[in-house]
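tmp note - (rape) hypothetical protein
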Amino acid sequence: MFQNFGSMEDTVFCGVFDGHGPYGHVIAKRVWDLLPLKFGSHLESYLSYEEVLKEISLNTADRMTSDSLVQISANGESRVYNKDQDMVQMLLTSIVKAYRFMDKELKMQVDFDCFCCGTTAVTMVKQGQHLVAGNIGDSRAVLGTRNKEDKLVPFQLTEDLKPDVPAEAARIKRCGGRIFALRDEPGVARLWLPNHNSPGLAMARAFGDFCLKDFGLISVSDVSYRRLTEKDEFVVLATDWIWDVLTNEEVVEIVAKAPTRCTAGRALVEAAVRNWRWKFPTSKVDDCAVVCLFLDSKPDKLSTASFSVDKHISNGLT
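out:
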């Protein structure tokens, strides 16, 4: 997690990345190392532009409110921008651009194979009361919030971008890719090459996996926005394996009931491991990662945890 991200106060960037294929863990690590930098670079370019607008606004104060900026175009026309709207648009656009440039960089690198390996990503940026989520693949972000009856309930911030989602399936089929499930996994739709039964991805968007990029797989980030209120308590980012065995409601309840904030991520992973072993006793436990971001101003606002197939759970507070 990065706090005061992009030299902006009260700005947090965090994410989880789920690699697949022989070099999936390497690709996930590379994306985690570089994606925040790319997002920050695009963010700073927008902030520099805003500083120019502020300078211009000094000479147009009579046409401004305290929440507006004025842009003077080349032909002398002026246009008023709302700062809140501009901030949201800046965050959304920066995420989309960062994802696009990240995939281009992976395609150019020669240190490891990205042709049939890749990673999903779900990232979140909190700037003040603005919350923006970016997502490719089947990881998920869920908000824990209070409803009108003051009951803690989940609100799903992202969509699981799997091959059988109608819009995703239409694009894949239009590009010549195939979608079908294996006999031993009838409920898991997978993406395949036109003439080969490989690689069988369980997601419709990912970084890398360039063997499928001409056949419907894309790395365009799906983005969502929410303006936070005092009823919003925390956000959980987690890889698909967590959501395979726990509902959104169960995840929110487990995090809320954790003994301490710094153990919330670990409690969630341990519950998922127990559920998996009970539901699928003959199947191996997959890797997973969790980030729990608490939205108030207390110092212990982040809890992370991960589980690897060597049966080791690690957790920490950043």
